[in-house]
Every structure is written in structure tokens, then in C-alpha cells.
Amino acid sequence: MADATTAARARIDRALAELERKILEIKARPASAPAIADDDLFAPRAGNGADAARVAELEAAGREASLALARAAAAVREVLAQDDLDQDDEETESEAG
């Protein structure tokens, strides 16, 4: 157990040292310097046409999934509303009977 903990701590220490090195490197660069390749993980990258096509496919799939979820949520709301109406009708009938 101690060996695993020691190894994990060493990996964390190395990762922190690498992060600190990158931060210092970025801070030391003048604003006019070109961007470092991996300094923004969310920046769009210049890629080939296959990457752009794949991104477009994923975006389209995301839109389709969103629409499907919206339709499913509407159907669930409709069923729940109908159940509420049915319960209200049953309560009204039992009170009248």
C-alpha cells in the first residue's frame, strides 16, 4: 500500500512540476509572441478536412439527440399530465359516489 501511495505521490509531484513549468513559460512570453501549441486546450485547431467533417457530424448528431430528448420529455410530460387528469377524475367520481 505504501508503494502505491509513494508512486501516486511521485506522479502528482511530476504533474504539478510540469504544470508549474508551463505556467511560468506562458507568463514569461511577451503578449506579441505566437501562441504555444498546447496553451489553450479549447482553441480550435487547424486541421484537415476530415477533422472538420467529423466535427460537423458530431454537431449534427448532438442537435438530433437534443431534439429527440425534447420530444421524449414532451411525451413524458403529456403522460404525467394525463395521469393527473385521470386521478382527478377518479377522485371526483369517488367523492360523488
Could you give a short description of this structure?
By secondary structure, the chain is mostly helical. It has helices spanning 2-28, 49-96. The protein is built from two helices and no strands.
Structure description:
By secondary structure, the protein is mainly α. It has two domains: 1-43, no CATH class; 45-97. 77% of the residues lie in helices and 0% in strands. It contains two helices and no strands. The longest helix has 48 residues, at 49-96. The termini are far apart. The relative contact order is 0.04. The model has no long low-confidence stretch (mean pLDDT 81). This is DUF4164 family protein.
Work out the helix count.
2
**SSE order:** HH
Largest sheet: none
Helix content: over 70%
What general outline do the C-alpha atoms trace? Answer: elongated
DSSP, total strands:
0
The low-confidence parts are none
Rg over CA atoms: 28 Å
Number of domains: 2
Percent of residues in beta strands? under 5%
For the termini, the CA-CA separation is 71 Å
Overall structural class, as computed from helix and strand content, comes to: mainly alpha
Overall pLDDT score: 81
- Oligomeric state of the chains? single chain
Keywords: Coiled coil
Protein name: DUF4164 family protein
Coiled coil: 2-29
